[in-house]
Amino acid sequence: MDPAELRALRTGELLDAAARIYRRHFGALVKLAAVVAVPQAVLTLVIQLASTPDLSRLRLQSSSTSQSVTMGRTAAATSLSGSGVATAIQFLALTFTIAVCMRLIASSYLGEESDASLSLRSAGGRFWSLLGLGLLGILGLSAGLVTCGIASIWLAVAWSMSVPALMVEGAKPTTALGRSWRLVSGRWWATFWVLSLGWLLKTIVGLFFTSPLLALFYARVLNNGVVFLTASAIIGLVTSVIISPFVVALIAVVYFDLRIRKEGFDLQVLAQRVGPTVVGPGSISPPPPPGYTPPRPGDAPPPPGWTPTPAPPAAPPPAPRPSGQPSGPPRPPPQPPPA
Question: Dihedral sign, CA of 44, 48, 49, 50?
Fold first, then answer.
C-alpha cells in the first residue's frame, strides 16, 4: 500500500488489504509459515502418540445413548495432559508464525521492500523475547480460563497486537502486552469482530480438508489410531501453512489500523517520506541544508557525497554618511547662468 493511501479502514477494507498482501507474497509467506509449522506438527504428533494409549484399539463403540471412546480414567487424564501440552505448543507456534511473517507483511503494507530471508532473520534476532512473550501469554490465558472462560477471550483479543508491537516497535515482552492493551482499548469489539472473521475462515478451510478424514474414522473405515493421528497431523500442517499467513496479514493490518486511528501513524509515515515543513519541537527530521531545492520529476539522484553549493555572500552594507551631510543621493553641482 502506498503511504499516501494509509488511512483508517472499515472491516471489509481490512480483509481486502490482508488478502492483497497474502496474494502478493503467497510463496514467501508459505515458506515462512512452514519454518514454524513443520517442527510444531512433528512435535505435536509425537506428544499425541505418546499420550494416547492403545492406539491400535482406538475405536468408537456404539451405545444406546451416545458414543464414547474406550479408555479408562488414567488414560483419559494422560490424554488430557497431552492435549494441554499440544495446545501450548500450538500457541507458541502461532506467536513465532506471526513474528517470522511480520517484517515482510509490514514492509509490504507500508510500501517498502523486503524479502523472506530478512523477515526470518528479524524474527530470529528476537527469539528469546518471542519465547518470553509466548510463555507470558500462555500463563495469562490459562489463568483467565481457570477463573472465567470469558476472561481468557478478553485477554486473547486485548493481547492480540503484542507480537506486532514487539517486532515493529522493538518492545520487550511485558511492554508489548501493555502496548497491545492500550491499542485495543476502546476498539475491543471491532478488533474481536475482524479477527473472528479471520479465524472463522481458517476454521472453515480446515474443516474442508479434515472432514473426509473424520468421516472415514467415524464410519470405522479408518480404525487405526496411529494412521488417524498421522493423517490428521499432515492435513493440519498443510492447512496451517496455507491459511495461517492470511491470519497473520490480517493481524498486521489491524495493528497498523489501530495506530492510524489512535496515533496518526499515517501522518508519521508521510512526514518521514517527504520531511516536515515546520521546524520546531517534535520535528521528525532536520531542515534541508541551505541552497537545497526539491528534485523535479525525472531528475537523477545526486551522486554520493554531494553537498549543495553554498550561497554567495551578501553584499556589505553601505558606509554611513558624515554628520551634517543630507541624506539621499548627492546633488549635482550648480551650473553657471548662460551668457
Answer: positive
DSSP 191-246: HHHHHHHHHHHHHHHHHHHHHHHHHHHHTTSS--HHHHHHHHHHHHHHHHHHHHHH
pLDDT of residue 287: 43
Grade residue 326 by pLDDT with cuts at 50, 70 and 90.
low
Tell me which amino acid residue 261 is.
R
Q: Which sign does the torsion angle of CA 253, 257, 263, 265 carry?
A: positive
pLDDT of residue 85 exceeding 60: yes
Torsion of CA 254, 256, 260, 263, to 10 degrees: 110
CA 263 to chain centre: 17
Q: What is the 3-state secondary structure (H, E, C) of 297-315?
A: CCCCCCCCCCCCCCCCCCC
Handedness of CA 51, 53, 59, 61 (dihedral sign): negative
What pTM was computed for the model?
A: 0.70
**Angle, nearest 10°, between helix axes 127-147 and 162-169?**
160
Q: Is 6 exposed, middle or buried (0-12, 13-18, 19+ CB in 10 A)?
A: buried
Work out the end-to-end distance of the chain between its first and last CA atoms, rounded to an integer number of angstroms.
Answer: 91
Q: Is the pLDDT of residue 52 over 80?
A: no
> Closest Cα to residue 199, out of 161, 248, 159, 162?
248
Alpha carbon distance 78, 84 (integer Å):
10
Closest C-alpha to 11, from 185, 155, 179, 198:
198
Place of cell 551650473: 335
Kindly list the distances between the CA atom of residue 178 and the CA atoms of 147, 185, 242, in Å, as whole numbers in the listed order.
21, 10, 31
Q: Are 151 and 137 in contact (CB under 8 A)?
A: no
Return d(Cα 37, Cα 202) in angstroms, integer. 15
More confident residue, 88 or 332: 88
Q: Say yes or no to pLDDT of 311 above 90.
A: no
Grid cell 451405545 in the structure block, residue: 63
The angle formed by the CA atoms of residues 280, 284 and 288, to the nearest 5 degrees, is 75
Q: What is the pLDDT of residue 283?
A: 34
Instruction: Copy the grid coordinates of residue 143.
Output: 489463568
